[in-house]
Amino acid sequence: MDTINYWPLFIIFIIAWIVPLVLSWLEVSKVPAVIVEIIMGVIMGPFVFDLIPDTPYMDFLAKTGFLFLIFLAGLEIDVSKMLSSLPRGKIRMVDVVSNSLLVALIIYFGSLFLSLPFAWLVAQFIEIDVVFLTILLPTVALSITVPILKAEGELSRKFGQIMLMEGAIATIMSIILISVYSGVLKNGFQVELLLFTVIFAVFVVTYIVGKRMMRVRTFQHLLYRLEHAASQIRVRGTVALLLLFVIVAHWINTELVMGAFFAGTLMALFVNKERSALLFKLDGMSYGFFIPIFFIMVGVKLDLSSLAQFQDSIPLILTLIVGFSVTQILPALILSRVFGIKRAFAGGVLLCARMGLTIAAAQIGLSLEVISPADNASIVTAAILISLISPLIYKIFSSEGEAHYGIYIFGGNRSSLLLAERIKMHGISCLTVLQNKDIIPEFERKSIKFKAVDHLSTETLDKLDIRTGDMVIVLTENRALNQELTRHLKEELNHHKVITKKQSMTHDIINADSNLKFVDIDEITAKYVEDMIVRPDSVTALAESFGMYRVEEIHIKRSDIHRKLVKEIAFPPTGSLVMQRRGSEIFIPHGDTHLLKGDVITVIGNTAALTQFRELLE
């Protein structure tokens, strides 16, 4: 039996362990950890200290890490939410810029459209294949963008979903276009070029089979029983699914990354990402073991000898960097309609990162003889440089962007105060615009963000940076002012995400075909009084004050209470467990109920009790 040297793997994990610790300790927030890991790989690789050799088993682990990274990228996509938000009927601009999938498609095809004239212009001065360069320019490095967005908690937000979708579309389209173009150059157009459609068929068939299996109660019970046992049945099944699509991709002779991404997207249709313990396990296995190996080995494998003729390659390198930037940033500026110009620019810059797929495409171009070895070295160098630079610029513009709020509330009454406090509890950025100076001390005492104005009018709306995706709530006490503000939002600013008070039985504030949402204060009051009569005890307990009792959802994240019984934990006496969700199951917890990592517990209690609940569970 051959002896395997574990020393290189040990060095890799020392680096993977130290890098985030040091960056956090030094409070270096603008340098992504993945970039430092790549640089450390270069230093420890054959061109500097030569401590980490590029052995077959290390190469296998690195490629597996890349596949897991792309799989997790597919898993992050909220497919059902994306499809449900697609506009139906007449498509308006507001529908387009509010939908993650449509915006991502616009960015990619905009990038592809700009790449053609840019490639033609470059070909006038440098001998290079126009079609090949057109396909090459829009490629995106998911391996760079995903970890950065994940580290900032962006993947679950709209901005991160758009970045993720654009990267995924660019990756899939680039693989398809490169495969077809290379096939045409080698053998002309043949039916075999359409083999990539097989993976779509496998996706559909696997989805149908999976849906039917999930309806079988015996199968559900087996999954639940074996999920946290030594068998870890869901983890094993997930890895098997990943490998199935990787094998299919290999069989049809396309990039394995396409199979990994489709496997992740398919898994996203079956997993509730907010409640599944499976994601904790996959994250731990992937980001804890495989993915760090991939990034450090990227640095180890970088061929610094390609920079030997760096001076001669400078014109093409600079041209490629400009091309990567221009063709990506300009289409991404459509995001300014939703996120503002700085945020849009930051997103475009992040999408400029090029790494694995670009370098792989360059290798294909070299083998097809559409580019020279010098061109290949220039493409690799340009990809490395922009992959190092773009995340740094992104961090600068992303962190120093102007203050922005997802929800704007107009009205300085107690309703506005209570609503703003509840929104703050959910971690959503909110600004209350008020002209009632008497309530300002309450906002200050509760640390709720507000903007005081002397006179609330339509001019106030014009001065605020309200974007297409923002929610505007009009709750002033003045009926005429409510009507004036709502009409201005709808007709002058063309803003559709508005909630306002219902002003009359026919809510004649706006035309009947409006898609605005109305709050009927009279109906809410009647319902509350009904509850006071029919359910007096519960209403009294919950309504004495907002700070007294409230309901909150808490995700169980602590490993030390995993599989413990409810009765084994000293929960606060001033609160109670109301409901427990595990995957698609919802039940009422009791003393003998097990608490599992990844469960979502609905609790009720006062502020002190909720704080204790969070300390015990999170």
UniProtKB/TrEMBL annotation:
One term under GO cellular component: membrane
Pfam family, one: TrkA_N
GO terms classed as biological process: potassium ion transport; proton transmembrane transport
Subcellular location: Membrane
InterPro entries given in the database record: Cation/H_exchanger_TM (IPR006153), Na+/solute_symporter_sf (IPR038770), NAD(P)-bd_dom_sf (IPR036291), RCK_C (IPR006037), RCK_C_sf (IPR036721), RCK_N (IPR003148)
Keyword terms: Antiport, Ion transport, Membrane, Potassium, Potassium transport, Transmembrane, Transmembrane helix, Transport
Annotated membrane topology: Multi-pass membrane protein
GO molecular function, one term: monoatomic cation transmembrane transporter activity
Gene3D superfamilies reported in the protein's UniProt record: 1.20.1530.20, NAD(P)-binding Rossmann-like Domain, Regulator of K+ conductance, C-terminal domain
Residues that span the membrane, as ranges: 6-26, 33-49, 61-79, 100-122, 128-149, 161-181, 193-210, 231-250, 256-272, 284-302, 314-335, 344-365, 377-397
Span of domain RCK C-terminal: 537-618
Protein name: Transporter (CPA2 family)
Organism: Marinoscillum furvescens DSM 4134
